[in-house]
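User: Hey, quick favor. My workstation is busy. Could you predict this chain's structure for me?
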Amino acid sequence: MQIKLNGCYAIYSWHWDIPEDEVCGICRVSFDGTCTTCKYPGDECPLVIGECQHAFHMHCIWKWLETETAKGLCPMCRQPFTMDKDKDVN
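Assistant: No problem, here it is.
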């Protein structure tokens, strides 16, 4: 039996390397989705994980930290928010 292949269409899927039930602590949207600023998920809407281990969409935490009431604190635990540089979620 011979098969002649006329074309091939690759289908792929991606997701961040975090538990699937995790959502952004600010916008409450899944990390495989997008924040309210972005149209498409992926590199344009990356995740940011703080040293406190709370994760957010990059745009969500930027907006949060720019507000006067945030005072540089994590919205989940109220500890000073600094990005965990050792954490890679790609």
